[in-house]
Amino acid sequence: MRFTVEREALADAVAWTARSLPSRPPVPVLAGVLLEVDGQRLSVSGFDYEVSTQVGIDVEADTAGRALVSGRLLAEITRALPAHPVELEVNGSRVELTCGSARFTLPVMPVEDYPSLPAMPPTAGALESDVFAGAVAQVVVAAGRDDTLPVLTGVRFEIDGERVTMAATDRYRLAVRELTWRPEQSGLTTTALVPARTLSETAKSMASGAEVTLALATGGTGEGMIGFAGSGRRATTRLLDGEFPKYRSLLPSEHAALAHVPTATLTDAVKRVALVAERNSPVRLRFGAGELVLEAGGADEAQASESLEIGFEGDDLMIAFNPGFLLDGLGAIDSDTARMSFTSASKPAVLTGKEGGPDYRYLLMPVRLSG
C-alpha cells in the first residue's frame, strides 16, 4: 500500500477516528486505526466493540492495501507534521511516513486480528446537520458523567412520526429538545438511549455537511445499535440499557413567577459573582420588581453582589443555583433573552429562550439554603 494525501485531510481523519479509541484497550489491536486504500480512496477506521468510526478521504494511490497502526500515535504525528503532502507506504512490518523533510517509521499491528466493523442498521431518517449538532449540544450539557450510573450518561431519543425528542439528566438538571426530521417511514415510533459522549463527538464532526442520516434498528439484526452518517463519515455505537427517568412529570405545566433577562448580561454577572463562591457553593438570585440581585459568599468569606435590570412578574423570590449548572443552561438556550419560570424557591426552575424560539427547556434544581 502506498499513497499521497494532503496533510490536513489525513490529520483530521485520523484525529476524529482516534478520539473514540479506548485508552486501555482489552486487546492491543483495538488501540489501532485501520488504514485501507481501495482505488483512489482511503478509509480510516476505528472500533472497540462498542463504538465504530470510519471516514473516507481522496488520495493519490499507487497501490491498494491495508495496515493497522497505533491510532493515538498516528494522530499526534499527523497533527505535528509540516504543511506539505504526506506520503505513506507499507514496507513489510513497518509503515513509513514522509512529509517534507520529516520522516517517521511506525510498526504495524496484525491486521488479521482486527475485528470487522459492524454494518449500519437500517436507515430511520435524516436531519439537517447544523440543526442536529445544535440540538445535541443543548442536551448533552445535562448528561451525567458518573459511569456507575450508566443510564444517566446517555441521551434518550424518542421518535414519534416526524417529531424527535432528546432528553438528558444527571438528577440535578434536565435538558429537553424537540425538533422535526424526515423519517424514512411514516408512523415510526421508537426510543433509544445513546451514550452522550459519543453522540456529542459525532454530531460536531458531521455538522459541516448538508444532513445527517440516522440509522436505527427497530427489531431483528442490529437491534441495540444506532448509526450516524454524514460529511463522508459514519459512526455506530451500542445503545445503553436501563430505564431512563420519567422526566416529563418533572416539567411544570404552570408557573407562579416569570423573569426575562438578557442572556449575555446574566452570564457575565454570574461568572463575576461566582468568583467568590467556594467549591459547591451556590449563587443566590433575588428577584423583585424590575431587578435581579446576584449574591455569593458568606459572612466569614469573600462576598460579591451585582444587580441587573430585568422584566419580572410575580411575588419577590430568592432562589439559589449551582453557578456552573446555571451557566451551562444559559450557554445552551441560543437566545439573546433568557426566560426563567418558577413555581417556588424550593422547586426546579425552567430556563428557556424567548418565546417563538427552538423547543428547548432546561430544568434546574435549586440548592437548599440553610436557615
Question: How does this structure look, described?
Answer:
With 371 residues, the chain is α+β, with helices and mostly antiparallel strands. It has 6 helices and 27 strands. It has helices spanning 7-19, 71-80, 129-140, 196-205, 263-273, 323-332; strands at 2-5, 32-38, 41-47, 51-58, 60-63, 65-70, 86-91, 94-99, 102-107, 123-128, 154-160, 163-169, 173-180, 182-183, 189-195, 211-216, 225-230, 233-238, 257-262, 283-288, 291-296, 304-309, 311-313, 317-321, 337-342, 349-352, 359-364. The strands form 4 sheets. A 9-stranded antiparallel beta sheet has the order 6-2-3-4-18-17-16-10-14. Strand 7 and strand 8 form a beta hairpin. Helix 1 runs antiparallel to helix 2, helix 3 packs antiparallel against helix 4 (196-205) and helix 5 runs antiparallel to helix 6. The protein starts with a strand and ends in a 7-residue tail after the last strand.
